[in-house]
Amino acid sequence: MDYRFKPATRVTQVAALALVFIFLATLPTILNAIIPESADAKEYSAIELSGPDSEWKIPIHNADDSEIVCERLYDDPASLEWNCNGTIVASKVVISTGPMETITRRMLRSTTFSNSALEAQVIERNHVFRAGTHQGFIQAAAITMQGSGEHSDEVMVALVYGENYEIMADLIWKRLAKADDLPQFNPDTSGGSEIPERPHLPAAPEGFGDAI
Question: Model confidence over 22-37: pLDDT tens digits?
Answer without folding.
Answer: 666 665 666 566 655 5
